[in-house]
Description:
Blueprint: H1 2-25, H2 40-62, H3 77-99, H4 101-115, H5 121-142
Helix pairs in contact: 1-2, 3-4, 4-5
Amino acid sequence: MMLKIADIISGCVGLLLCAYVWITSADFPKDVIMKIGPDFFPRLVAIAMAAACAALVVQALSSKTTENADAISFKDPGIQRALVVLALSIVYVASMDFLGFIISTVITMLIMMYLLKLRNPIQMVVVSIAAAFVINFAFAGLLGIQLPAGLLDGIVNF
């Protein structure tokens, strides 16, 4: 029964998050040249996530199971890594205005790769830097959306 309630609550919270993304993305600037503007991908993801959340709620409501959810142990290494990733994600978003997208992304990706037990330092640095610059170019150069420059303001422009 607890698993069923957890699925219903999770699905409803997910639907609320999708609604928030949909409403927030409506404020993105419109592109007069291309039909696909900056709001396209967030809305596409919101639709896909809303479908999955709605399916979770429907499945939970139609299910006749009475299983209980497993208790979460904070001593479990997987749970500890997930909490570290959650905390790191919060620090990443909070530091982006000051450090900028590129620096924050490189540092966060290096830490994430270390947590995922990737220990080749050259590969870690190359992938982190390349990913940050490619994503920044995709947003700034292709979509016309400026990401926070932070400390690199005036140095890196696309």
